[in-house]
Amino acid sequence: MRAAASATAIAHPNIALVKYWGKRDDAANLPAVGSLSLTLDALATRTTVRFDSGLAADELRLDGKPDEPARRRVSRCLDLLRARAGTAAPAQVWTQNDFPTGAGLASSASGFAALVVAGAAALGLDLPADELAGIARIGSGSAPRSLHGGFAVLRNLPSGAVVCEPLLAAGAWPLRVIVAVTSPLPKEVGSRDGMRLSRETSPYYEAWVHSHPPDLAAAEEAVRRRDFPALATVAEASCLKMHAVMMATRPPLLYWTAATVAAMEAVRTLRRAGTDVFFTVDAGPQVKAVSTAAAAPAVMAALAAVPGVTRLIDSGLGHGARCIDPTQR
Ligand code: 2P0
Question: Ligand 1 centroid vs 133 CA: distance in angstroms?
Answer without folding.
Answer: 15
